[in-house]
User: Fold this.
Amino acid sequence: MTMPDWVMRFPGAVTVSDKELRIVYMNEKAQATFADQGGASLIGSNLLACHHAQKSADTIHRLMAEGGQNVYTIDKKGQKKLIYQSAFTDESGAVAGLVELSMVLPADMPHFVRG
Assistant:
């Protein structure tokens, strides 16, 4: 899978899998983020191999079956991160795979309420 150049250099980690849960794309940030697990060599491997908890596997299977998103924040190595996992669909509307975005959130990130 090829992505536009800007996605490759996007400062957040972008990982994409197909409907068989094979990792088909990782941008530079995703490769660096998962370097200790193999980085770019993870392309072609099964997404479930990267998620060891049963809860993670259950979430992945639910997203593949139903579509939708799984969104949360984590604190890892002193950084707060937004994790946004979403199913995506093909032209017919069938779930075709998953995309995960992982972005570091600034500690002093403002929050606005707009009416």
